[in-house]
Known about the structure:
The chain is mostly helical. The protein has four helices and two strands.
Amino acid sequence: MKHLIDSVESSIKIGNWYSALTLTLTLPDIAGKVDYPISSSNKRYSAWFDKYLGDKYKAKVGPKKEEHIFLSGNDCY
């Protein structure tokens, strides 16, 4: 995985935006295959996203501080 992350960073440094975007959007599916090898692509992508990135897209909002999900794994997929 490190070589893939390094590729994203390298693409950003040289301004290869299409490569950076493609790799960034593909990484959850690649990593999800490790955690969830049997499930379908959309299920493993969503599950991996929710497990590792989901907290970054949640916040308590409003006067009652209710939890709101701004981006879920399904939405991202």
